[in-house]
Design brief:
The complex is a heterodimer. By secondary structure, chain A is an alpha+beta fold. Helix content of chain A is about 30%, strand content about 20%. In chain A, a hairpin with a 2-residue loop joins strand 4 and strand 5. Chain A is elongated, with a radius of gyration of 35 Å. In chain B, about 25% of the residues lie in helices and about 30% in strands. Chain B is built from four helices and eleven strands, in the order βαββαβββαββββαβ. In chain B, the strands form two sheets. Chain B has an eight-stranded mixed beta sheet, with helices on both faces. In chain B, strand 3, helix 2 and strand 4 form a beta-alpha-beta unit. In chain B, helix 3 packs across helix 4. The chains are: A alpha+beta, B alpha/beta.
Chain lengths: ~450, ~220
């Protein structure tokens, strides 16, 4: 039989109210199947069964509040339940039947040598029971106060070794202190003694106080994922390769904000995804790249490679901070806003679900990173090698600005272009940004 | 840090949001998905928690439906409550096995998120011993009710921003005969977007979340 206890739901919680039994005595339950519900401080929790078997006894009625670790039910494990149609769960559930009473009813017919085999079979279930039983870790007797719990954690004390002298054998702070005092003598002695066999040349080592075994680890070592290692290498490589300079321009995107507001619902309905600012920026950048082809170039030795295609990479942050990937919108200059938005939604979605094909992350000639979506006003992005520039898009925020000597509230966005000064001079970079800004501020293209 | 996807569902009926929560909880229990933070505003609805008493609902269901208010029984903790326009409802779908394994700390954390958010707007939110939720000068501004299944949370909190408080007359909120209030009633002009932005930051800090990967998480005025 397995005891089902009121689980420990948190440090400060010493009791819980059993609000509902999801199974009746005699019902069969699977391990991890919700067995009952409890309520603690506005939190209702379903508690899964710690084992598979028959709910043999229900010891606590619905609506009763009991201390944690109180046994609320007993489960007769499947192995303990004799096979055979004769025994109905109801019979087993009749209380008071001590575990030993259950087995006899139907002696299995074929196995002639049953008796000797049967009795050993009685003990294994008990052995099985032990590991399967506690849904909560094995707790010492009685609830523990948060203080005791914290002390145990801080000093790394195994509470099962501590004798409780409080009410009902509960462990108190004094018990812990007594235990630590007793233990302290031992650990101190142990740590003072030089490490026995391996290093007989102890003298210099003795100056460094040995780390007590109980000290919690201050660090955790974990190898980088392949992606993380590649990002690390790529970032440092880029910083080493290019002469990074960032220039920031402010764009008034009120016109686009209004357009978006107006078309939002219609756009969503027609295309099934929402209209964001990003495709407008990509569209404007593609135009500006056409005007200033050197921003769409790369360097090879002392040659300048001009790319005839405008392939714009869009930085996508992966879920769980697992990394960053830059899928590429090919021939971005040939797409309108709808086409760009569709490509962004598609590539970002597949980047996150790891469904991108290798050639979809290659061949970029320029990149855009949209840190504005995380609230950043502007940042200084790192160039995606072997490209020579990357445009960072800041958050669009309603801002008071001076328009014709009056203060107006406009939707403002900062555009940060990081360029490789080896190839691009500041004046040209700023002309490029002005072009992007001009297109965004005077947006005239149809969207729908 | 645990990654957390923030999704602002905008206006969504209670039942629909509930179904979405259920689906996310199932996935989370199987370890398939990240933590989620759902933000939503419900049309007028009164919901009854597991421990709810029928007498705390002061109107018949028929009267409610005539007043255009839905009525639902739910599996969250707590008593009866009202949701409606102007109220920010937050449903965190968190796996507490990865955060303290402690429902008490979790609920205190929700309160802290709201208290810190209110502080950003110059309001002093307080706890009231024995009455989970957040209070300002003795009036309830935020209700809390949580369901837990294998340490995965659902339901959450409801914070009154510009809620029409007259709807609370249909119930005894959370079984307590205490007044309710809202940010607007306290003279705070903050919009939902303002509150959401602050609230997310406090969730990140208190529950050690990384919401970086969220799409559409950020207020509408931002590029997405």
């Amino acid at each position: 039989m397995i005891d089902v206890v009121m689980p420990q739901m948190g440090e400060s919680i010493v009791e819980g109210t059993l609000t509902k039994w999801l199974k009746k005595a005699g019902d069969r339950v699977e391990r991890d199947e919700p067995l009952f519900e409890i309520s603690t401080d506005k939190v209702d929790s379903e508690i899964p069964s710690p084992a598979a078997g028959i709910l043999a006894e229900v010891l606590v009625n619905e609506g009763t509040t009991v201390a944690i670790n109180t046994v609320v039910a007993r489960i007769q494990q499947v192995d303990e339940v004799p096979a055979g149609p004769a025994t109905t769960p109801a019979e087993i559930s009749k209380p008071a039947a001590p575990p030993a009473a259950a087995p006899p009813p139907v002696p299995p017919a074929p196995a002639a040598s049953a008796p000797p085999a049967a009795s050993p079979a009685l003990s294994p279930p008990a052995a099985v029971a032990a590991p399967a039983a506690p849904a909560t870790p094995a707790e010492p007797v009685g609830p523990l106060s948060p203080l005791v719990r914290r002390m145990a954690r801080e000093y790394n004390i195994d509470l099962s070794q501590v004798r409780g002298t409080g009410a009902g054998g509960r462990i108190t702070k004094a018990d812990l202190e007594a235990y630590m005092a007793a233990q302290g003598a031992r650990t101190a002695a142990a740590s003072m003694a030089p490490a026995p066999a391996p290093i007989p040349a102890a003298p210099p080592a003795a100056e460094v106080p040995p780390v007590p075994r109980t000290a919690p680890a201050k660090t955790r070592v974990e190898p980088m994922s392949t992606m993380r290692a590649k990002i690390a290498e790529h970032m440092v490589f880029s910083k080493r390769t290019s002469a990074h300079v960032t220039t920031v321009h402010r764009a008034d995107v009120t016109k686009i904000a209004n357009l978006r507001e107006r078309l939002k619902a219609q756009f969503q309905e027609r295309y099934g995804f929402s209209l964001t600012y990003l495709p407008f920026v990509v569209r404007a950048a593609a135009e500006a790249l056409r005007t200033f082809p050197i921003v769409n170039a790369s360097i090879e030795g002392t040659n300048i490679i001009y790319h005839n295609e405008i392939n714009i990479g869009i930085a996508v942050a992966l879920d769980g901070g697992t990394g960053l990937i830059v899928p590429v919108i090919r021939n971005a200059d040939e797409r309108n806003v709808v086409g760009l938005q569709r490509a962004i939604v598609d590539l970002a979605g597949r980047a996150r679900s790891k469904q991108l094909k290798p050639d979809e992350v290659q061949g970029g000639t320029f990149s855009i990173t949209n840190f504005g979506s995380f609230g950043s006003i502007f940042a200084t992005p790192v160039i995606n090698q072997p490209q020579v520039a990357i445009l960072g898009v800041g958050a669009v925020e309603k801002t008071p600005v001076v328009v014709d000597d009056a203060i107006a509230i406009r939707s403002i966005c900062h555009l940060a272009l990081t360029f490789d000064h080896r190839l691009i001079d500041g004046a040209l970079a700023d002309q490029f940004c002005q072009k992007v800004k001009q297109i965004l501020e005077n947006w005239s293209e149809q969207v729908l | 840090m645990r990654s957390c996807v923030v999704r602002d569902l905008g206006r969504m009926p209670f039942a629909e949001a509930y179904a979405l929560q259920q689906a996310l909880v199932e996935r989370r229990k199987q370890g398939l998905d990240a933590d989620y933070l759902l933000l939503v505003e419900h049309p007028h609805v009164i919901t009854m928690g597991r421990n709810g008493r029928r007498e705390h609902l002061l109107a018949s269901e028929e009267l409610l439906s005539r007043a255009g208010i839905e009525f639902h029984h739910t599996d969250r903790g707590g008593d009866v409550t009202y949701h409606g326009p102007g109220q920010l409802v937050v449903y965190p779908i968190f796996d507490l096995k990865q955060w303290k394994r402690d429902v008490g700390a979790y609920v205190r954390g929700l309160e802290q998120v709201v208290i810190d958010t209110l502080a950003d707007f110059g309001l002093k939110g307080q706890r009231l011993a024995g009455c989970t939720g957040v209070w300002v000068s003795g009036a309830k501004i935020c209700a809390i009710g949580v369901h837990l299944s294998r340490w995965v949370t659902s339901h959450g909190l409801a914070l009154n921003i510009t809620t029409d408080l007259s709807y609370f007359r249909y119930i005894v909120p959370c079984g307590l005969t205490k007044p309710v209030t809202s940010l607007a009633e306290l003279g705070c002009r903050a919009t939902r977007a303002d509150v959401v932005a602050r609230l997310i930051r406090h969730f990140e800090r208190i529950y050690d979340l990384d919401t970086g990967a969220s799409e559409g998480a950020v207020p509408k005025e931002r590029i997405a």
